Amino acid sequence: FPRGAALNHSCAPNCLLTYELREGVSPVQVVRAMEPILQGEELTHSYIELGLPVWKRQLLLKDTYGFECSCKRCSGDGFASLDLQLVAAADDSGAVPGLGEVCPAPLALPCPERDAALTKANQLMVRAAHEEDAATELELLQGACSIRETWLHPLNVEVTASHAAAHTASMAAGNWTAAARHGRRLVDQQAQIYPPWHPVCGLQFFTVGELEEAGGGNARPWFEKALSVLRVSHGEEHQLVVDLRERLAQ
């Protein structure tokens, strides 16, 4: 897809690349404009995960694609607060970098109690990754979530990682209540990090809706939110969008 490959990267993209796969037909790449674009404005999409602070995005782009990003999100000050929150302590006093990470942001004041607790959370995450019993894995991950939420900012990437792992483990364990709870927590985080049109948000809305439905809850608001995003990001004829319309029509 040479035309799609010609599009440049931006950490504040205005387009999304999707692919239409139909049996017996060659794959089609679709460039979707996700917000109003002025005449002469460049079309851009994201090459990397956007839920990272600027220095991690810059390093990833440099290592993978060999360039330094100068988009408005990387070069302006409008996202500086979000970048810090992604690595911040719970009291927003400064950054708490992960083990072995180099962080250029101002660091939080030393706190042995916090450091000991976060070390324990990391150990719980490692134990969970090697645990074969899904219920035990979930218990370990929920312990890590609790510790990290106590000491880290709600948007901190480590908090997000623990909830994402617990969300997956909950579904593996068949614990739909826990899965919905962790899914809602991810929605709260993603809504503040990603553009409102981002498919990550739409897919998470859909997943939480399914979990609410499985647990006897009210899935309709979640499916409506999912439809509002996915009909734009995936197209009106995508199977997910068709399924959502059918569910909402019932």
UniProtKB/TrEMBL annotation:
CDD domains to which the protein is assigned, alphabetical: SET_SMYD
Domain annotation SET: ranges: 7-47
SUPFAM superfamilies, per the entry: SET domain
GO cellular component, one term: nucleus
Stored InterPro entries: H3K4_H4K5_MeTrfase (IPR050869), SET_dom (IPR001214), SET_dom_sf (IPR046341), TPR-like_helical_dom_sf (IPR011990)
Protein's recorded name: SET domain-containing protein
Organism listed in the record: Noctiluca scintillans
